[in-house]
């Protein structure tokens, strides 16, 4: 892990198209801003973990052999 010390209004660059800027600091809180292309998703860590857990649970239900999807099949008459 890279650990950097930054002051208010200082930036960190990731590649040529991502900028992280320190907006304010107070007590034990830091407000940061991100500039990145729209195609790059930026999530808080706890939100990312929740999405990851949900995705894992959803994929388990798709591979669960006890799951019966027969009622969702469409019967076509020829």
Written description of the protein model:
This protein is an alpha+beta fold. The chain has a domain of 51 residues. Strands 1-2-3 form a 3-stranded antiparallel beta sheet, with no helix packed on it. The radius of gyration is 22 Å and the shape is elongated. The N and C termini lie far apart (62 Å).
State the gist of this model.
This protein is α+β, with helices and mostly antiparallel strands and 78 residues long.
Any key phrases for this structure?
alpha+beta, 78 residues, 24% helix, 3 strands
What is the total tally of β strands? 3
Task: Give, in order, the helices and strands.
Answer: EEEH
Number of DSSP helical runs:
1
| Overall average pLDDT | 87
Question: Major beta sheet, specifics?
Answer: 3 strands, antiparallel
Q: N- to C-terminal separation?
A: 62 Å
Q: How large, in whole angstroms, is the Cα Rg?
A: 22 Å
Shape: elongated
Global structural class: alpha+beta
Strand order of the largest sheet: 1-2-3
Helical content class = 10-25%
Could you tell me the strand content as a percent range?
25-35%
- Which regions contain 5 or more consecutive residues with pLDDT less than 50? none
């Amino acid at each position: 892990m890279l650990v950097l010390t930054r002051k208010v209004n200082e930036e960190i660059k990731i590649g040529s198209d991502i900028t992280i800027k320190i907006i304010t600091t107070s007590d034990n809180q830091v407000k940061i801003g991100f500039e990145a292309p729209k195609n790059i998703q930026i999530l808080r860590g706890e939100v990312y973990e929740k999405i990851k857990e949900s995705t894992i649970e959803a994929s388990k239900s798709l591979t669960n052999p006890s799951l019966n999807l027969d009622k969702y099949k469409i019967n076509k008459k020829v």
